[in-house]
């Protein structure tokens, strides 16, 4: 889907060196194109109005409604995402707020490349008096914002897919190769070059349960994994 400039909203856009949440292999040329699209899109594409849509339970959350009002973000409420989520709009950039990232509504919107955020993102921005954060991927909370993770020792692709999605939902990024830019190494074994280098560099080395425990606290706006 096309990426548009969202007024003054801060963009949390994909790093060209990270995994896609679907863990697909991409070429260097595709990485370069993706990086250019995300980072330089502001100069390339026209600005459109942002429309926030509170879906189902999100629309009945008084604190969430007040938070949007506090940051002067116009919003609508709906019980039927198909009213808005089917097809691209040239008039609006629609952002959906969902309380459940495992719901049929989420699946419907995600498959159609819609922008999706969770209530904690709205509450976080309101608390800091910031415009809404937006991402190329669904963003439930900012628990791992600014963190860059690398994995080692994992062989099960389904387990990896789940962990990568959780990190992305919390605002973190994933790097395939270990470097000084990695803030945490998630290890499933103590073998391998990544583990040895991380230990030498003093990079925090954690198990996958750290990601799971952070996700359990996803609705705690004041919590940040570190």
From TrEMBL:
Organism: Nothobranchius kadleci
GO cellular component terms attached to this protein's record: cell cortex; nucleus
InterPro entries in UniProt: BRCT_dom, BRCT_dom_sf, Ect2, ECT2_BRCT0
Name of the protein in its database record: Epithelial cell transforming sequence 2 oncogene
SMART domains the UniProt entry points to: BRCT
Residue intervals of the BRCT domain: 146-226
A GO MF term: GTPase activator activity
GO biological process: mitotic cytokinesis; nervous system development; regulation of cytokinesis, actomyosin contractile ring assembly
Highest taxon, organism lineage: Eukaryota
TM region(s), chain numbering: none
